[in-house]
Design goal:
single chain; three-stranded antiparallel sheet; D-Maltodextrin-Binding Protein, domain 2
């Protein structure tokens, strides 16, 4: 018969096994908190993703995981900090969107996508094309028709020059053979404000935002820029609507490519457990995150695919 202290000892060993296994495989384990750097203001999509990961990590990670917001330059400030900073495993970037896949094609930066190593993709952020309801553009076909009839007259808003929203619209213009006018804002919220005020013809929103604004009678939902969203299952993709565009926003965890292999191995194992846990699924459902886990190699390929699509759409413009 096992004594109570033996049972407790065995139970404690079982709980510690996943972390100990990761430690044994990698030869490294953290001894202080891990910081997730977010290149945008609190409350935005990237910040929501980061905080969901932090919540899901409770009880799995042997050290606390915290979020630090370092906004600016469409995420490039935080990205450069990770790419060029100390590669000791204690600082990670929550990226995969503008700062990683589009900005390097538009601006001179002190880093490139190859300066990062993906740990895992967390979620996809579908981008939904919406138009001002009183503007009368209620389909992709109508948008293309109007834009061809009056080149440069229609306006679209993005969260900044070289960001992923801007890149998606450039892909739309190039593929459809149309010309529109780009209006850059400091953030997507400002673009939406002008759209609702009738000062802008169209922008891109998250599925939840698009659904809320459409339900309120403020916008027409036209299409997504990649595939269909579970939040808007009846909304076609641009490709389905006759304009073959596939540019996707995504968020995941990244470290400097200079990070030693034992540290990367530890993070690969730890975050695979966190991101595929039931706790993560529950949090994602509550916060409308579209989970789309990929391991580090898969995440890097997904970002590279988007980066290549952006570069092809940008051309010499």
């Amino acid at each position: 018969m096992l004594h109570r202290r033996h049972i407790l000892s065995l139970a404690g060993s079982a709980l510690a096994l996943p972390v100990l296994s990761a430690r044994a495989q990698s030869g490294w384990t953290p001894s202080r908190p891990i910081t997730l750097f977010v290149g945008f203001q609190p409350g935005g999509g990237t910040d929501v993703t980061a905080r969901a990961v932090v919540q899901a990590a409770e009880g799995i990670s042997p050290v606390p995981i915290v979020v630090v917001n370092r906004p600016g330059a469409a995420g490039a400030i935080a990205a450069e900090f990770i790419a060029r900073g100390e590669a000791d495993g204690y600082a990670m970037l929550v990226g995969g969107g503008s700062e990683s896949t589009t900005l390097p094609h538009y601006n001179r930066l002190n880093y490139k996508l190859e300066d990062f190593r993906g740990i895992a993709r967390v979620n996809r952020e579908h981008m939904v094309l919406v138009t001002f309801r009183q503007g009368g553009i209620n389909s992709v076909a109508e948008l293309v028709k109007r834009a061809k009839a009056e080149p440069g007259k229609l306006t679209y808003g993005s969260s900044g020059q070289g960001g992923i929203l801007h890149a998606a619209f450039q892909a739309l213009e190039k593929t459809a053979g149309i010309q529109m006018t780009h209006v850059a804002y400091r953030g997507g919220a400002h673009a939406l404000q002008d759209l609702l005020g009738g000062r802008l013809d169209m922008t891109l929103l998250t599925p939840a935002e698009a659904k809320n604004q459409a339900d309120a009678g403020h916008v027409f939902i036209l299409a997504t820029t990649s595939n269909r969203s579970g939040v808007l299952p009846d909304t076609p993709s641009l490709t389905e609507a006759g304009v073959p565009v596939n540019i996707e926003n995504m968020k995941g965890l990244m470290v400097s490519a200079r990070t030693p292999a034992p540290i990367i191995a530890y993070h690969d194992a730890l975050f695979a457990r966190i991101l595929q846990s039931e706790r993560m699924k529950e949090i994602a459902q509550r916060t409308n995150l579209d989970l789309a886990y990929l391991d580090g190699a898969g995440f890097m390929k997904a970002m590279d695919d988007t980066s290549r699509a952006v570069l092809a759409a940008k051309g010499d413009s």
